[in-house]
Each structure stands twice: as structure tokens, then as C-alpha cells.
DNA sequence: TTCCTTCCTTGACACGGTGTAAAGTTGACA
DNA sequence: TGTCAACTTTACACCGTGTCAAGGAAGGAA
């Protein structure tokens, strides 16, 4: 796991990550990744069968390094529904910028490659489960708007917290990360919680 | 302009449109479009310098045929701010599914081609102006939440009404078009309008 | 030492899609 | 009859992905 000199596979994953962070999605070719890793292009194919699998592996590597599970799990310890909602939004909302490069690359291949679609869909399903749990907790507290079924509420929260919305607000509209998180928290409450 | 037998250029645009409606984005190749139009691949290049320009031209053609300007303009005639907000959401929200095929194709090329990015950005800017006008009308009526500046409110409404959000709710979550429009209207009010 | 194995390199190539180039066809118009 | 414009046909260059085969370097076992 924590060997001193990184093996080739890890070097490739690190390089992919770095390149996707700095340049945008489709500009990252297999040869670029190989060069960055100081390895031949064929060595990359020795470890990953194709580009899509490499990107998917990179997201898994990122999750591992960044401990995405641990972060999202933290929101589970909140007692009240409202606290749980806030904690989840904070955890996920602050995770987005860290994975955005890789996410955007994977997102860009969605309609080109079914495996990419599947991989992204799986990851978003995990986020959806977090939304569902938050909605459930709100409902248990009797705080969910009566005109909203749990599933619809989950759909809305999930959509609100999409990577695309984060990108639009922070990149296109120039919001700071903090402004984004605060706005999402406020919006989620207005969207889901009944008036006090 | 309105000749009886459609010229080649129009046939190509119609074919592009049709193909983008049925199949998904990147699967539509120049040769597919040519075949669908009953024309040689080179004839396509005779009318459009490259794929991106063809896609952009197709969106403009669609706008013309569907009278997008006229539709969005209708919301301008509403008297109250609330009516204007509703009318705009209805007009734009119901326009999305009609242009989605072409929009998705253009969207998919965004980070591959700067011209596509530019074209899409221009179109979204028009939508943003609609949002801005609705927010302004609300504010003039004294209905805009006091904790929201006009620009932030515009950003939020614009983000809420993004094509991606429409896709996620209708495609991924399976909402009907009507449910989508109703939810967006309700949400926009909760987001922007101060409590009565 | 020699041999074997594993990981990696080098160089070549097939494939598919975009875009270019050039010569030939067709039909309208004068 | 000639000319012009629109379109076809064929061929090709380019680029990125993915495949294939031969060979080299390092390390362990005999």
C-alpha cells in the first residue's frame, strides 16, 4: 500500500489525475498521460485495457486517497434531520471541486462510451443515497414539506447538488466555493423543509 | 427563403436535426448525416466547413423553425413579476425538450471545440437574460427576497433552469414534462420570492 | 554462472472519423 | 454551343485509440 517508490500503476493514476486537473477533459491523450508518468504509451495499456477504464480507475483511486466514504459518512452521525442535511451538503459540496477534473472527463465520455456512463451513474447513485438519507431524516423529524413525497424530494435535492450546477455557479457565475455551499444549504432548506 | 423544393443546405440541416433527435450525440457522423440527406459526404462540407459549424447552424435553424424568440418574448407581456416568472419558466421549460437532441450534441463538444463552447455560451446567455428580466420584474414588484441581490437571484434561476437539470429530472428521475414545469415554477418561487 | 520470469520499451500497424484535394458529371441558362 | 454552379467520386493526409511482436533490463532460483 504505502511503498516508498510508487509503482508504475500508481504513477499512471497520479499522472492522469494531475493532467485532468490542469487541462480540460478531452485534451488529455493516452500519450500525454504516458509522458507525464515517464513511461511508454504501451505501458499504460499494460495496466489499463483502454482509456475509459483508466479514467474510471482514476476516480476510484481518487476516492481512496481522498477518503470520500469517510467524508460522506460523517454526515451520518448528525442527530437532527436539519443537521444531517447541512452536513451532507457541506461534505459533498466541498468534495466536488476536488474531483471535478476527473469527473468532467468521465462526464464528457458518457454518450460515447457505455462503460463511462455506467461508472458515472454508479457514483451518482451513491450521492443519491446520501440525499435520500437526508430526506428520510428530515421526514422522521416531521420537517419535510407535506406536499413533497420522499422520492420527489430526493430527486430535487440530488439535482440541486449536481456537479453541473456546481460548475455553473462557481465557474460560469464566478461564485466562491463558500458562497456555493452556503447557497445550497439555504436553498435545500427552502426547497424541502416546511415553514416553521 | 421559402422555396418549394428544399435546397441541399436545408435537407442537410433537417437531417442533422432528425438524427440528433433519435440517436445520441456523438454517434452522429458526417457520413450519417449525408446519407440521411441523400447527398454525398462532400456535399455537406460544401455547405458547412466542419462538424461544429454544422451543429451550430442546426441550432440556429431550429430556433428559426420553432420561433424561439417569439415564444420567449411572450413572457415579456406579463404584467406582474410573478406572472412573468411563471410565463418564462413555462416557455423555456417547454422549449428544452424540443431542442434537447441538438443541444446535447453541442454540449458534448464543448470542451473539445472552443467554437462549440462559444455557440452554446451565447445561447445560454439569451436564457440568462430572460431570467434577469424575470428577476427584475419581481424586484420591481417588491417581491424579491431581501437577502438576494438581483445578480445572485439571476444566477440561481438560470442554474435551476439549466438543460442538465431538465435532463436529470425527466430522463434520470423519470418525471413527466408537466411535473418538471410545475416543480420548477414552485421552486423558483420558493427560491426567489419573499414570504407573503 | 545460467536460466527464467516479470515488467517495460520500441516500432510497426490496423481502424475509424474528420477534413482536403482534384477531376468528372449534370443541368440550367444564355 | 459554351459556361457556370452544384454535386459526385475517389483518393488521401492526419490523429488518436488500441493491437501485436520482438527485445531489453533487473532480480530471484538453481
**What Rg of chain A is obtained from the alpha carbons, in whole angstroms?**
19 Å
Low-confidence stretches of chain A: none
> What would the principal axes of the Cα set say about the shape of chain A?
elongated
CATH class of the largest domain in chain A: Mainly Alpha
* Number of separate structural domains of chain A: 2
- Characterize the quaternary organization of these chains: homodimer
Average pLDDT for all residues of chain A: 92
Query: What fraction strand of chain A?
Result: under 5%
How far apart lie the N and C ends of chain A? Answer: 51 Å
- Sheet bearing the most strands of chain A, described? none
- Beta strand count of chain A: 0
N to C succession of SSEs of chain A: HHHHHHHHHH
Helix content bin of chain A: over 70%
CATH topology heading of the largest domain in chain A: Tetracycline Repressor, domain 2
Largest interface: A-B, 25 and 25 residues
Q: Which structural class fits the helix and strand makeup of chain A?
A: mainly alpha
CATH A-level architecture of the largest domain in chain A: Orthogonal Bundle
**Number of separate helices of chain A:** 10
Describe the protein's architecture and organization:
Chain A has 10 helices and no strands. Chain A has 2 domains: about 10-50, Homeodomain-like (Arc Repressor Mutant, subunit A, Orthogonal Bundle); about 65-190, Tetracycline Repressor, domain 2 (Orthogonal Bundle). In chain A, about 75% of the residues lie in helices and about 0% in strands. The longest helix of chain A is centred in the middle third of the chain and has 28 residues, at about 80-110. The model of chain A has no long low-confidence stretch (mean pLDDT about 90). The first copy, chain A, starts with 7 loop residues before the first helix and ends with a helix. The radius of gyration of chain A is 19 Å and the shape is elongated. Chain A has helices at about 10-20, 30-35, 40-45, 50-65, 70-75, 80-110, 115-140, 150-160, 165-170, 175-190. Chain A is mostly helical and about 200 residues long. Chain A binds a DNA duplex (30 and 30 nucleotides) through α3.
